[in-house]
Design a protein that fits this description.
The structure holds 2 protein chains of 2 kinds.
Chain A: H1 3-7, H2 9-24, H3 30-39, H4 45-74, H5 82-107, H6 111-135, H7 144-160, H8 163-179, H9 192-207, H10 210-232, H11 235-259, H12 267-284, H13 287-295, H14 303-324, H15 330-352, H16 356-381, H17 384-405, H18 409-436
Helix pairs in contact in A: 2-3, 4-6, 5-6, 6-7, 7-8, 8-9, 8-10, 9-10, 10-11, 10-12, 10-14, 11-12, 11-14, 11-15, 12-15, 12-16, 13-16, 15-16, 16-17, 17-18
Chain B: H1 2-24, H2 27-35, E1 37-45, E2 49-50, E3 54-61, E4 80-87, E5 93-99, E6 110-118, E7 121-123, E8 128-130, H3 136-145, E9 151-156, E10 163-170, E11 173-174
Antiparallel strand pairs in B: 1-3, 1-9, 2-3, 3-8, 4-5, 4-6, 6-7, 9-10, 10-11
The chains are: A mainly alpha, B alpha+beta.
Chain lengths: 439, 175
């Protein structure tokens, strides 16, 4: 069994449901069913589901206790002597970490409770930073407290391979990045997205965590766009970085599919990447925005852009490699081609800045391409998610273009009704088609 | 046995890092608090809230706006500023000299303070004062009704010029 499939809980859950039907309909005999059950460890699914649920409950509990501790700190209790306060804050933090590590890594019988306690220890660490600030009346200038919290959380995340601790580190480091840049940006911020990629994406790969991987991509995208905008003071640069990260998120997943590793880990991230490209295309498809961007020419390519350009070159490399290996066929080839052309059109708008009319047309072509490829994928593969994504994108484009240039209420009413009817009819026809194909 | 112990090292180091970070945060203030010279400075409040650490007042010190600051050239954000203070007849300490480099000699009656130029004033790292939730409203009311009576009790390390605020006195009450 491939490693990815072992981890794909959704796939195994569906397989177990199907297996019962196949056995009942006589498609496979009991020994084959047993082989498949053993191969995909289907017997342990119920136990795994319970463990996942328990883990989630423990994490939620740890977060709630952490918030409670923070609020307790914020109450600024004055009656306890300073030395007792310091002993208490160290004691509670070390106890949470120590007991958590024992339960998870040494005793091993309360793995999820132990993990939740280690997360609680990191949350208490953050609360303690605030408490130290209170005791010594320290100033939390330039978000240094959040930076310190992120550092401690990242160290624990890597030490015990903990995705919840990693998420704390990601959120706190982003807050630190934003808060530390009050005046002119520091040069180190240019390295932040690179460090975020190494620190967060690396651990997510190691843990094969789809949640961690997706959260990492969101943080990398947000920080790349923020840093590009910060160093250039231009929204067009932030958009350029956003398009670059979105394209790379999709390309990375294609790479995983091709090599047959980490495919399920990057699935949601790739979807988010293409969704983000659609959002960029939608935003740029408005004539007024195109005019504003035309006035705001992209700044000279300098240090702010190296990271984005590296991601784009990497994405192009992946696509080129796929073409070279003949790995793109049928709908996959059309989809990949549309993403590449769409992303190129968006980048051309941002980099070349042709006249506003051409920019609007290019963005609309890209948006139409994305909508059409989703709709086509839905009809071809009878996939509901693709179908409705395509319908939504095209309906939003048509409605937006119409209302951008037409203001008559009667006509607006007619267009809304017409679009609604088209969507409803398309949905009914699509579902009928699925039924006739027994999907 | 040896392998099991080795596996625990990364976690122990990570937790040790958290402990060190906590210890490092107030390190510059320890010496001032423990062995510093106590002075009283005139203050007025600026802003009453901080997200991470609960309620506090941002104190705007009289010594934050020293005479002669505007005479200094090349003032840029985050520039280190050195100030000497002397005790006045009112018992409070006021600015005597302001300069860009530490003075080679101090008068016997002078104390050195190390500050930073920020937002058109000198800040000394003593501008935040946390107040407990139960007296927050009382402090705000007292500050509003007695704007000229607020004094900060500050300890200053005479060797480094680093200061730490230890109490806030308003209209005869200590917070």
């Amino acid at each position: 069994m491939s490693d990815d499939l072992t981890k794909s809980w959704t796939f195994r859950r569906h397989l177990r449901q199907e297996l019962d039907l196949w056995r009942r309909d006589g498609l496979i005999d009991p020994s084959q069913a047993d082989d498949l059950t053993q191969r995909y460890a289907l017997d342990s699914l119920t136990r795994e589901a319970e463990r996942r649920f328990t883990h989630t409950i423990f994490v939620i509990g740890a977060v709630l206790v952490g918030i409670g501790v923070t609020a307790f700190v914020a109450a600024n209790w004055k009656t306890i002597p300073v030395s007792a306060k310091i002993a208490l804050l160290y004691g509670v933090m070390l106890a949470a970490h120590g007991i958590g590590y024992f339960l998870w890594k040494i005793d091993g019988r309360r793995e999820h409770l132990g993990h939740a306690l280690i997360l609680l220890g990191t949350l208490i660490f953050g609360a303690n930073i605030g408490l130290m600030g209170q005791i010594y009346h320290l100033e939390s200038r330039e978000g240094a407290a959040f930076g310190a919290w992120a550092l401690g959380a990242l160290a624990v995340a890597w030490a015990v391979s903990s995705v919840p601790n990693l998420v704390v580190a990601m959120v706190m480091s982003f807050v630190w990045l934003v808060q530390s840049q009050e005046a002119q940006p520091d040069a180190w911020t240019l390295w932040f997205p690179v460090a975020a990629t190494a620190g967060s994406l690396g651990l997510s790969y190691w843990k094969r965590s789809m949640f961690g991987y997706t959260a990492s991509l969101l943080m990398i995208g947000a920080s790349s766009a923020y840093v590009a905008g910060l160093h250039t003071e231009k929204g067009v640069a932030a958009m350029f970085a956003g398009v670059a990260v979105s394209t790379a998120a999709w390309a990375l997943h294609r790479f995983h599919r091709l090599v047959g590793r980490y495919e399920s880990v990057g699935q949601v991230g790739a979807g988010l990447g293409v969704f983000a490209l659609c959002v960029f295309a939608y935003v740029l498809s408005f004539h007024e925005i195109a005019e504003a961007l035309y006035d705001e020419a992209i700044p000279t390519f300098a240090a702010w852009s190296y990271w984005s350009v590296a991601l784009l070159l990497g994405s192009m490399g992946v696509v080129g490699w796929m073409i070279g290996r003949g790995a793109l066929k049928g709908y996959d080839a059309v989809f990949a081609g549309t993403v590449v052309v769409g992303a190129t059109l968006l980048l051309s708008i941002l980099v070349v800045s042709p006249d506003a009319v051409s920019m609007t047309i290019m963005a609309n072509v890209a948006l139409f391409g994305f909508g059409a490829i989703f709709l086509g994928g839905g009809l071809w593969r009878l996939s509901r998610s693709f179908f409705w994504a395509g319908v939504l994108a095209l309906a939003a484009q048509i409605a937006s273009r119409f209302f951008e240039y037409e203001t008559g209420l009667m006509l607006k009413s007619a267009v809304f009704i017409g679009l609604g009817v088209i969507v409803l009819v398309a949905g009914i026809l699509f579902e009928k088609r699925r039924e006739t194909r027994h999907v | 046995m040896y392998n099991n112990a080795l596996k625990r090292v990364p976690f122990i180091l990570a937790v040790a890092l958290q402990v060190v970070v906590l210890a490092m945060l107030p390190s510059s203030k320890y010496k001032a608090v423990e062995t510093g010279i106590t002075v009283f400075l005139k203050v007025g409040p600026v802003d009453p809230y901080d997200f991470l650490s609960g309620y506090h007042v941002l104190l705007d010190y009289e010594i934050g706006h020293p005479e002669g600051l505007d005479d200094l050239t090349d003032l840029v954000r985050e520039l280190p500023i050195f100030v000497t203070i002397k005790q006045g007849d009112d018992g409070l300490w006021h600015v005597a000299r302001v300069m860009l480099d530490p003075p080679e000699l101090l008068e016997a009656s002078e104390l050195l303070l190390r500050g930073t130029y920020l937002d058109d004033r000198v800040r000394y790292g003593i501008e935040s004062y946390f107040i407990s939730e139960d007296v927050r409203e009382e402090v705000e009311k007292n500050l509003r009704e007695n704007p000229d009576s607020a004094r900060a009790e500050v300890k200053i390390d005479p060797e480094t010029g680093i200061a730490a605020v230890v109490a806030l006195h308003i209209a005869g009450k200590i917070y």
